[in-house]
Amino acid sequence: MGKKNIHRREFLQRSAALAAGVTIIPNVAMGGVLGHKAPSDKLNIAGVGVGGRGFAVLKGLESENIVALCDVDWKYAKKAFDHFPKAKRYWDWRRMFDEMGDSIDALVIATADHTHAIIAAHAITLGKHVYLEKPLTHTVYESRLLTKLAEKYKVATQMGNQGASGEGVAQIVEWLQNNEIGEVTKVEAFTDRPIWPQGLNRPEQGQWVPDTLNWDLFIGPAKMRPYNEIYTPWNFRGWWDFGTGALGDMACHILHPVFKGLDLGYPTKVQGSSTLLLTDSAPVAQRVRMTFPARGRKGKMKLPEVEVYWYDGGLQPMKPEGWPAGKDMNDSGGGVLFHGTKDVLVAGCYGKDPWLLSGRKPIVPKTERRITLSHEMDWVRACKESPENRLEPSSPFKEAGPFNEMVVMGVLAVRLQGLNKELEWDGEKMEFTNIGEHETIRTVIKDGFEIHDGHPIFNKTWTDPVSAKDFASELIRHTYREGWSLPDMP
């Protein structure tokens, strides 16, 4: 107990945002993971990041006790504060843990992507159940860490890709595993996002920080930069330090039935391309190819090597032969096509409304669990069950963690496209195996766009060349700002 408590105390005391002497005592030091509850008992739930998606999730959990609300932007969070007037309000999740740790059973986390892992990881070590919005994490390492911590501390976890609890995903899995379309060697998926600004030069001037925003806490483990209203709220998704672009935002919805239905693991090869790639801001449009090795069989389905293609920014796959003329491929923000040897399976965003290109309607056994509760309330159910008897919700970290590694691998492929080659990936070791010691990479700081006499000119400003291996390693596992740290990998 002593070592764990000291580690936590050191973590808190290193943060300038906390007063001296504040400590968090892990729940495991007081008897282990929080005990299970009867279904009629209410969970005490805290929300961290409650101004946007977090508010929507918490409203779906109103049958429970919402006891605390934490946000770095109290103007953006006002609707949640007003809706849950009895909940105690915080700027800093660490102080919330210190003051209310004993009375919090579970957390809903919907902050910017770059702070997902640090909040969730420390919550898990305190024995808290966690509902974490997508993308699960900002990096491959963070996803691996949450996967292992959830397994170690036996808490109930759920990623906020709500389509995982829908009928469409269950049908897709059943159709695939009943061999309805044959062997799948290619999958194409796309989204119509971004619908927030991307492909932007970094602002050259800072602005005064609003009184209602704690900018230092928003930055958290990232590198400090001057405040500008272009970064937050919501627009954080388009900035590499805070978000993962359209791919990280929507692939967690659209690729989930692909990962689950085809029993994917780690890719072995990845390659990405995009519109102008900037140092700070995600591109306007991206394309990625990930190759997964043969995986034996699952159900009646043989699982050969498969290539998974991703498109965003308005790009779509070419329509396959036999596509119904006039039918829009975009269904609720995107879509996915499974190309099988016998047929093509098509579905919309979130895995919704699957259908076969042939027009045939499969009748197959229902082998997947149907979730009658909401995505959020199914997690609540799991929180109240003992670890030994728990029925996992539809997107627990033991699945969502490896799946999110696939998602952020697409981000890596795009950000490393300047190496001009297909990258080979060792998933177990979390490293690229074909980046040489002497290879370098550089990125565009600003595009320098001007028009002279009617002619467009790009006087690009580039970074100095840096070690490609070091650059890739930093993308795989970020170096956190001083005062911020993750728990050790189990």
TrEMBL record:
It holds the Pfam family GFO_IDH_MocA_C2. Residues 205-292 form the Gfo/Idh/MocA-like oxidoreductase bacterial type C-terminal domain. InterPro entries: Gfo/Idh/MocA-like_OxRdtase_N, Gfo/Idh/MocA_oxidrdct_glycsds, Gfo/Idh/MocA_OxRdtase_bact_C, NAD(P)-bd_dom_sf, TAT_signal. One of its GO terms (molecular function) is nucleotide binding. Residues 45-160 form the Gfo/Idh/MocA-like oxidoreductase N-terminal domain. It comes from the Bacteria. This is Oxidoreductase family, NAD-binding Rossmann fold. It comes from Thermophagus xiamenensis. The lineage of its organism: Bacteria, Pseudomonadati, Bacteroidota, Bacteroidia, Marinilabiliales.
